[in-house]
Structure formats: C-alpha cells, structure tokens
Write a structure and sequence with these properties.
501 residues, Carbonic Anhydrase II, 13-stranded mixed beta sheet, 3-stranded mixed beta sheet, 15% strand, globular, binds 2-acetamido-2-deoxy-beta-D-glucopyranose, binds zinc ion
C-alpha cells in the first residue's frame, strides 16, 4: 500500500513534526525500511503490513461477504492520471468508484504496484506461506461515510480499505496493457500523463468472493495502522514482457538528476503478526482442512464485558481459557490441572467480596465497550503522535517515541481487532482493560494469565517488544510509559503491574 502526496498536506500543520515527516525514504540503503521508524514512528509500531499469510494464522469467517465494487468500468472518455512518484507507478481513480460490501462505503482514490526486478520476479508485499509473488497491486479506498477526503482518513483507525491483488508471471494480461503502454511517458520521478479510462475491474481476479482479511497498515511511510486489508486468494497473471516493462522502465530519480536510479524492488518485507489472525472467506483447498472457525463477536463481547465489569475471579478460574488465543484447546486441558490449586484460593476471594460490597462496587465502573474510548471510536494517529511527542519532549525522552506510541496504540488496536474477530486477545490489551478493576482480583487474573501463557511457550516471539502497562491511571492513549525496564526482567509479561490506587 503506498500513500502518495497527501501526507505533507496533512502533516505540515504540525510544524514540530514537519522536520520528521518531510524525510526521504527508500527501500534500501541508509533510508531503507529498517530506518523508516526514525522519521516515521508508526513504521516501528503495531499492526504493520504486509504480513506473511501463514496457514496457522487463518480463521474461517462465514460472515465475510463477496467483495462488490461499483462503477469500476470506466469509459475511455474519462481521463485518468498515470504518475511516477519515485516509489511506484500510480493511477488516480475517480470518486464514483467504491466498495459497497463493507460496513461503510469506501471510495476509491488510487491504485499502484509493488514489484521485483529484472532478474527477480519476486516483489509482492504479502506472501502466502512464505511464497512471494512477482508483483502486487493495491487499490486504495477511503471511508467516505466518515471522512471528507483521503487526507482526513489516512491516519484514522477506520480510515482506509485496500484491495490487494497478487500478480504472477504467466499469460499475457490485456487489462494491464491499458496502462503499461503509457509508462514510457513517466520514466522519471514526478512525471505524470493523462490516459483514457478502462475497465479497472479487469485488473482484479475473476473471483472476488475468496479473500484474506486482516487489520494492518500502509506499507510505506508514514505506516499508519489504518488499513482494512483484503488480499484476494487468486492471483492474476501478466506476461514476462509485461513484468519486464514494469520492472525496467521506471526510475526513482528525477529526469534532471545526474545519476539515474532504477525503480525496482519496491516492496516492504513481512511484518510481525502482533497477535493478529487472518480471516478467510473460504474453507476449501490445500492446507485448509481443520481450519478453525472464528469465535463469534458476541462471545468476544461477553468476554470483554466480563473483563470490564464482571467477576474477575470467575475469569481467573474456569473462564481463563476463553481469553487465550484460539486453537489453545490442548492448553485448556492442561490448565485445568494447574488451576485446581488456584481454585480454592479464588473461592475464598469471592467470599471476601460478598462480605465486602464496597470492593465489588469499585469494580463496576460505567465503562463499557464503545463508551470508554476503547475499541469502537476511531484512533487519530497524527494527533496521538503529536500528544505523545509533546509529553516525551517535556521529559527529554523524545527517543522513546516509537515505543511510547506502540504502547499507547497496541492495546486499543488489539481490542478493536479482537472484537472484530481479527486478532487474539493479547495480555497487554487485557491489562489495559484491567486498569479499572480492583487490585487483588485483577492481579489474580493477571497472574493466572501470565502463567498460562508462559506455559504455552513460544508466545513470546511476537510480543517481545511489548512492554507492560504503567501506573498512569488514565485511559488516554497518549499515556507515556516509564523507562523501559525489560533488561532486568526475564520476560515483559512477568513485569509487575502497578495500580493507581
Ligand atoms: C480534506 O478535507 C478537509 C476537511 O473537510 C479540508 O480541510 C482539506 O483541505 C481537504 N484536503 C484536501 C487535500 O482536499
Ligand atoms: C453509572 O451508570 C448509572 C446508570 O447505569 C448511573 O446512575 C450512574 O450515575 C453512572 N455513574 C457514573 C460515574 O457515570
Ligand atoms: C514453538 O516451539 C516448538 C518447540 O518447542 C517449535 O517446534 C515450534 O516451531 C515453535 N513455534 C513457533 C511459532 O515458534
Ligand atoms: Zn502499496
């Protein structure tokens, strides 16, 4: 997913960040992807794209409807702008094009490509079980029900929807020829030309009902985690000649630059899953037997509700398995044994509660999903960055911006995504909710969960960057973490919780 030219407009108002965001970036060298987060902190943050779509991440979701696109068949009388922005080749799309099968209307803005190089037909961003395709097309849409234009939507958690199409070298593709025949006119950065409209639908695979769905980000700076991703299961093909035209014609340098830099290999490598899962709309085919069906949103809501206002002693006991990543059935059996020890203790606790109603009352705050700023309201990444940066600057800890943003954003995204069935509930998100609960109950649950998850072994890999919650009681996402303490503890999840009271 590449986001072009709108960013500077949106960000220039934030003068103190303008220095950061004007920064040049590339796919290799000193401004390459491993350095993006220096100037674009979200690139080092949570819920990044692309990902490797691995079988073990897949969950069948019977509620996923076929993708429906409207007004994609453009007439030759409609002029489209074809441009080279130095990172990709991009076609601007008219606002009458939209996706109609998602909860909001998502209006088309542009499409663009990522590809390999002359000798290497491997340049897709998403990979499937580690297989990289020759190229990938992204059709970028924004949530026009909620936002006036692309620049308003790009940094909102429900702002964008992108259709991803995997491209393999094979049969000649007539639809791709509609724009490839013009790319000699945009060899250099910032060149653009007008071209006649054509049927954009013909660039997509025949079947729009089979796809992967997950929550992710722009795959280029500023990497906001604002994208609802749909990657079609079936790839399209272009001929070897067509691939070579794409891979060898363009330059990422300006026409007047003395050294011409070829535009190739413009793909980002797969990012951490971050407790996300990938929903699939299909169930048949290789490697799909025994695929889990997602737990219903209703069940998920009940669990979160119980975390918010329910009896935590119950959750720390029998209900604990429901909080663990799905597919942990084995664990559930083993845990029962473990938990026997805890049970008597918990019963004593419950009794105490009944005897001490004030303790319970304290837990029953009026926080509910959607009203707490938790999960249902969109996050605004630019303003969040602004606030976090400001707080860090006051304490001369600007260098912690990436980690601070990650800590602020991850629990919200995880919870939102969990309620939509697109991730497992992660411990940092649970702790985020538990901050409003009485200390002893919450500590008990935290201890049980940490223990259960530690026993599960390699959960740690995906979450090793996540620091624990801090004592700041506010749910404000701009909460700034304390100094990282990870060196002195064996595992971030074992770090003690601190409570405002
Ligand atoms: C987008 O919309 C906002 C608010 O409606 C407006 O202020 C801004 O100028 C628009 N940006 C562009 C690029 O059209
Ligand atoms: C919580 O909600 C109840 C009604 O559901 C209301 O009477 C009470 O005032 C609310 N408390 C707070 C702190 O908002
Ligand atoms: C988990 O650990 C087992 C061995 O302990 C290993 O075979 C497996 O590949 C690991 N899984 C992951 C996702 O790291
Ligand atoms: Zn892209």
């Amino acid at each position: 997913m590449h986001f072009w030219s709108f960013t500077p407009i949106a960000l220039l108002e934030l003068t103190f960040l303008a220095v950061l965001h004007g920064a040049k970036w590339t796919y290799n060298g000193p401004e390459g992807e491993h350095h993006w987060s220096k100037h674009y902190p979200y690139c080092g943050g949570a819920f990044q794209s692309p990902i490797d779509i691995q079988s073990k991440l897949l969950r069948f979701d019977p509620t996923l409807l076929p993708i429906e696109v409207q007004n994609y068949n453009l007439s030759p009388n409609e002029q489209l702008t074809l441009g080279n922005n130095g990172h990709s080749v991009q076609i601007s799309l008219p606002s009458k094009m939209y996706i109609s099968s998602l909860p909001h209307r998502y209006t088309a803005a542009q499409l663009h490509f990522h590809w390999g190089s002359y000798g290497r037909a491997a340049g897709s961003e998403h990979t499937v079980n580690s297989r990289q395709y020759a190229a990938e097309m992204h059709v970028v849409h924004f949530n026009s029900d909620k936002y006036h234009n692309m620049s308003m939507a790009v940094d909102k958690s429900d702002g964008l929807a992108v259709l991803g199409v995997l491209i393999e070298v094979g049969e000649f593709n007539q639809a791709f020829e509609q724009f490839l025949r013009f790319i000699n006119g945009i060899k250099y950065k910032d060149q653009r030309i007008q071209m006649p409209g054509f049927n954009i639908r013909a660039l997509l695979p025949a079947r729009l009902d089979e796809y992967y769905r997950y929550d992710g980000s722009l795959t280029t700076p500023p990497c906001y985690p604002s994208v609802l991703w749909t990657v079609f299961r079936n790839h399209v093909t272009i001929s070897r000649q067509q691939f070579q035209a794409l891979a060898t014609t363009l330059y990422s340098s300006h026409a007047q630059d003395s050294a011409a830099v070829p535009l190739k290999g413009n793909y980002r490598k797969p990012q951490l899953a971050d407790s996300r899962v990938v929903l699939v709309s299909f169930k048949e085919g290789r490697g799909l037997r025994g695929i889990h069906t997602v737990t219903s949103p209703l069940t998920r809501r009940q669990i979160v509700k119980q975390l918010l206002v329910g009896d935590l002693a119950d959750l720390a006991d029998e209900g604990l398995y429901r909080l663990l990543p799905s597919g942990s059935e084995k664990l559930r059996v083993g845990m029962k044994e473990d938990l026997k020890d805890l049970q008597s203790e918990n019963r004593a606790k419950s009794k105490q509660q009944t005897l001490n109603p004030s303790l319970r009352k304290k837990g029953q705050t009026n926080r509910s999903v959607g009203k707490s700023g938790l999960a249902e309201d969109e996050l605004s990444y630019v303003s969040l960055e602004h606030r976090v940066f400001h707080q860090l600057k006051l304490s001369h800890r600007e260098h912690q911006l990436v980690q601070a943003l990650r800590d602020a954003v991850f629990p919200e995204l995880n919870l939102k995504s969990y309620l939509d069935c697109k991730s497992d509930l992660a411990l940092p998100a649970i702790r985020h909710i538990l901050r409003g609960r009485p200390t002893d109950e919450a500590l008990e649950l935290d201890r049980s969960l940490t223990k259960a998850l530690m026993n599960q072994g390699n959960m740690s890999t995906a979450l090793k960057h996540i620091l624990p919650m801090t004592h700041h009681g506010s749910l404000s996402p701009a909460t700034v973490p304390r100094e990282p303490q990870s060196q002195s503890y064996p595992h971030p999840w074992l770090l003690p919780m601190e409570w405002e009271d």
